[in-house]
Specification:
The chain is of the alpha+beta class. Helices cover 45% and strands 20% of the residues. The strands form 4 sheets. Strands 13-12-11-14-15 form a 5-stranded mixed sheet, with helices on both faces. Helix 6 packs across helix 7. The two termini are 57 Å apart.
Length: 416
């Protein structure tokens, strides 16, 4: 991965020129004394020449240090309400799985602290701080060469000063108000006393905001897929994108980013989604039934005019909320040739069996009880549930991710 030097410094081009000449002049400063001694040792004793040589070395040496040897500078200012944190530590950390690994530390002085160092390439990092009383705070940013300025406040902290942080901050400035609007609407939706009519209206408003957030996120990723910001945002937001959007982004990913584990995994998932897209033939697999008997997907598809492959789990709240719609569709259209096979992403066999009974799921079921490592889910690129795949008797995939009334509407169209 190429090193990206900060463009925050307005004299970036001048600094580059100065670095170039710094190397030359420092080399000359080192070579000159040797040359002078060889040519005429007495010249080296000349105070004027000696002063010039030392001056050149010091001047350009300092320029070289401040522009090349010390390339990134992180300035953090804690909110005034945390002024009592003077003398405490904050940490430069890296997220590894669910853990924050401390890489460096700094002491808070007068409500501020600094980190200095050299970064070969931009990378996602966190500043972590744990007050004496309260929960730890995590502030994400891109660690890269340049002067990074961050103001840490409870609401809307900011990170500016370098290319990737400027882009990332601009995205946050737009997405955070939308997140707040969505959260406020959700609180109203969940509030006691909210009528069904009010909930229906709130659902429409939330869907509208959700669409805005998805559009903003996709646009940001699309415009930055060749830099660390787009690469950082893409995997976590890929679940809301259509296959065509995913393929368009995949075609633009630079080669140096394709080896990043999260990107490599996503690119492979896109290939799987393309193989199991609408219009493609289904991919067969066999998993155990609740009784432990092998269930072959192809056998279930062969006996129904249309079969819904329903990926779910007993621990999944949205799956349970959606299940009454699935049950209703099955009861209405089962005798007309509609079948369902539930593929559970449970890891607890007893919880899986209990949920089947409790929710009246009277159709075929299968699971390897491996949770998110479910082999059947992997074959269809499932990374969030509930997820569905509707397959015709000839094996052609008709639709994906039908939910709610959309299931009945599709079946009404197909089973006239």
């Amino acid at each position: 991965m190429k090193t990206l030097v900060s463009k925050m410094d307005k004299l970036g081009l001048l600094k580059f020129v100065l670095i170039y000449y710094a190397v030359i002049y420092i080399a000359l400063a080192l070579v000159m004394p040797v040359t002078i001694v060889i040519l005429d040792p007495t010249l080296f004793l000349n105070p004027t020449i000696l002063f010039i040589v030392i001056g050149i070395a010091l001047f350009f040496g300092l320029i070289g240090y401040f522009t090349f040897i010390r390339p990134y500078f992180v300035y953090k200012k804690l909110p005034t309400v945390l002024a009592e944190t003077d003398g405490e530590f904050v940490y430069l950390s890296e997220a590894k799985g669910r853990e924050m690994v401390k890489l460096d530390s700094a002491v808070v002085t007068a409500g501020a602290f600094t980190f200095e160092g050299r970064q070969d390439a931009p990378t996602s990092r966190y500043i972590t701080y744990t007050p004496k009383e309260g929960r730890p705070s995590y502030y994400d940013f891109f660690l890269e060469n340049g002067n990074i300025a961050m103001t840490l406040v409870k609401e809307n902290p900011s990170v500016t000063g370098t290319p990737n942080n400027e882009i990332y901050q601009a995205y946050k400035n737009e997405i955070q108000p939308l997140n707040k609007q969505y959260g406020d609407l959700y609180k109203q939706y969940r509030a006691e006393g909210t009528t069904d009519e009010q909930k229906a209206e709130l659902e429409k408003q939330m869907e509208e905001i959700d669409n805005k957030m998805n559009a903003l996120t996709f646009s940001t990723i699309e415009n930055n897929i060749t830099n660390p910001v787009g690469i950082q945002l893409w995997p976590g937001n890929s679940y809301s994108m259509e296959l065509e959007q995913l393929q368009a982004l995949a075609a633009k990913v630079p080669a140096e980013f394709k080896t990043i584990p999260s990107i490599d995994k996503l690119l492979k998932r896109i290939e799987v989604l393309a193989k199991t897209a609408v219009g493609q033939k289904f991919t067969d697999f066999t998993l155990p039934s609740p009784e432990g008997n092998p269930v072959k997907l192809a056998d279930i598809i062969a006996k129904n005019k249309y079969t819904l492959i329903d990926f779910w789990a007993s621990w999944c709240g949205p799956c349970r909320a959606e299940m009454p719609n699935v049950v209703a569709a099955y009861k209405e259209y089962n005798k007309k040739g509609f079948g369902i096979v539930g593929v559970s992403l449970d890891s607890d066999a007893e919880a899986w069996k209990k949920a089947i009974k409790d929710m009246g799921m009277t159709w075929d079921h299968m699971s390897d009880v491996k949770g998110w490592q479910c082999e059947g889910a992997a074959l269809y690129g499932v990374n969030s549930i509930p997820a569905t795949v509707l397959v015709a008797q000839d094996g052609t995939i008709i639709a994906r991710n039908l939910r709610g009334e959309a299931i009945k509407e599709k079946l009404a169209e197909l089973l006239k």
